[in-house]
Amino acid sequence: MKFTFLGTGTSHGIPMIGCSCEVCTSTDVKNKRWRCSLYVVTEGQHLVFDTPPDFREQVLRFGVERVDAVFLTHPHADHIFGFDDVRRFSTLQEQHIPVYGSPETIRMMRTKFEYVDRSSYGFESVPRVCFSEQTKPVSIGNATITPLPVWHGKEMIYGFLIEGDGKRLGYIPDCNSIPDKTLQCLKNLDAMILDGLRPQEHPTHFSIDKAVEMLGRIGARQSFITHLTHNSEHHELQARLGDAVTVPWDGMRVEL
Ligand SMILES: [Zn+2]
Ligand SMILES: [Zn+2]
Ligand SMILES: [Zn+2]
Q1: Is the separation of the CB atoms in 222 and 191 below 8 Å?
Q2: Is residue 254, in this structure, part of any structural domain at all?
Q3: How far does residue 93's CA lie from ligand 3's centre (Å)?
Q4: Which of 99, 130, 158, 248 could disulfide-pair with 5, CB 3.0 to 4.6 Å?
Q5: Range of the domain at 57
Q6: pLDDT for res 178
Q7: Ligand 1 centroid distance, CA of 135 (Å)
Q8: Run of H or E including 148
Q9: How far is ligand 2, taken at its centre, from the CA of residue 30, in Å?
Q10: In this predicted model, what pLDDT tens digit does every residue of 3-17 receive, in sequence order?
Q11: 97 falls within a domain
Q12: Mean pLDDT of the chain
């Protein structure tokens, strides 16, 4: 199993518009973060987790050449508003691409992208997709993707457990509390990627310290935080966290 961080930033992205702080003005590419998305290749399947507003540039920069299925964690703007660019893949692959999310997420997608279901447009004009309400594990080829209900403030949204090539990867980019039933699924992981927004507390995201504590409880062989703000300079944060938790950057590739 291989995965690429297509984006690791919070909803504003980094640099943030109109901010002249040390991180937003840094020339280090590790301090530039697009909105969160993950690309996983396993069992020969090419899977995308969220289509943020930066999706087109992420795909071009990091060499995403195929998409066999899209999984959506939740319908917040920073996770879905690059969705239209899925159409290049449905055109290139000449197929409808399956798109999975919770019933609420799929309902919101049909509302926000209502033109996608209309048939009068030509084949290259809209993403050709099959929206699927997911409440159970699904198989994409020999890969298995299981929804992981988590709290994101007052909303119950999804993270995902990705299993393939004998490996197990957990991905929860937006979350401030994990129910016990979901924690039970996060055992014996090869890697875990968890929301660790910023040093300060936040009502809908884990702070960095809370994320590190939760990653310690989960005990994956490799741990990562994501959905970072301009409050964290990449190298300073990595030095503070030491070996236990990796601070990823956009374009970072990991092979399990
Ligand atoms: Zn988000
Ligand atoms: Zn800033
Ligand atoms: Zn969110």
Answers
A1: yes
A2: no
A3: 30
A4: 248
A5: 2-11+33-247
A6: 98
A7: 21
A8: strand 143-152
A9: 14
A10: 999 999 999 999 999
A11: yes
A12: 97
pLDDT of 122 above 70: no
Structure-block tokens of residue 77: 């703007």
CATH number at residue 74: 3.60.15.10
How far apart (Å, rounded) are the C-alpha atoms in residues 24 and 185? 37
Distance from the CA of 76 to the center of ligand 3, in angstroms?
5
pLDDT number for residue 119 = 63
Tokens 């049909």 appear where? 110
Which amino acid is it at 143? A
190 C-alpha to ligand 1 centroid (Å)? 24
| Secondary element (H or E) of residue 99 | strand 97-101
| Domain assignment present for 87 | yes
* Number of separate domains in the chain: 1
Per-residue burial over 119-132, b if 16 or more Cβ lie within 10 Å, else e, is eeeeeeebbbbebe
Measured CA to CA, the distance from residue 178 to residue 151 in angstroms comes to: 6
